[in-house]
Amino acid sequence: MPLGKPDSLKELDKRLHDAKVERHRDRAGLPGRLAGSNMTGFGMAFRVGAELVSALIVGVGIGYMLDNWLDTAPWLLIVFFFIGAGAGILNVYRAADGLVGDGMEIDDYPCDDDKKDS
User: Fold this and answer.
1) Contact criterion met (CB below 8 Å) for 44 and 33
2) Sign of torsion, CA 66 70 74 75?
3) Alpha-carbon distance 99 to 53, whole Å?
4) How far is the C-alpha of 68 from the C-alpha of 60, rounded, in Å?
5) Does the global pTM surpass 0.85?
6) Packing angle between helix 75-97 and helix 41-70, nearest 10 degrees?
7) pLDDT tens digits for range 18-67
8) How far apart are CA 88 and CA 80, in angstroms?
9) What whole-number distance in Å separates Cα of residue 110 and Cα of residue 101?
10) Of 82, 80, 85, 57, nearest to 69 (Cα)?
11) Who's near 31: CB < 8 A, 6+ residues apart?
12) Tens-digit pLDDT profile for residues 78-117
């Protein structure tokens, strides 16, 4: 193997490492499922808010209708308010769980420069 070959391999390895670091920096603001998608932070905030409010509306609506039908006002409204709030919080948790990245840090990408020769 020519003596110039290892230097070019080291250079290629360095370029690959730099490209991975650059890609990681580009995706750092939108980790997890949002990485590479078109959803912005504002879009995610709107989604989370809409899911929480819609779950509360559905819960209160079901409780109100059941209270009117069974003449148990306001007990079922209160119960279904809390059920709707729980469902909304669960939806927010699921949406936020998608924000968690894969846990890979920039330093996790292998590079020959990081290895110590003995």
Assistant:
1) no
2) negative
3) 20
4) 12
5) no
6) 160
7) 888 777 666 555 555 555 555 677 888 888 899 999 999 999 999 999 99
8) 12
9) 19
10) 80
11) 99, 100, 101, 102
12) 999 999 999 999 988 888 877 665 444 445 555 555 555 4
CA distances for 23 relative to 20, 36, 96, angstroms: 5, 10, 22
Alpha carbon distances (Å) from 37 to 13, 25, 44, 90: 28, 15, 11, 23
| 3-state SS record for the chain | CCCHHHHHHHHHHHHHHHHHHHHHHHHCCCCHHHCCCCCCHHHHHHHHHHHHHHHHHHHHHHHHHHHHHHCCCCHHHHHHHHHHHHHHHHHHHHHHHCCCCCCCCHHHCCCHHHCCCC
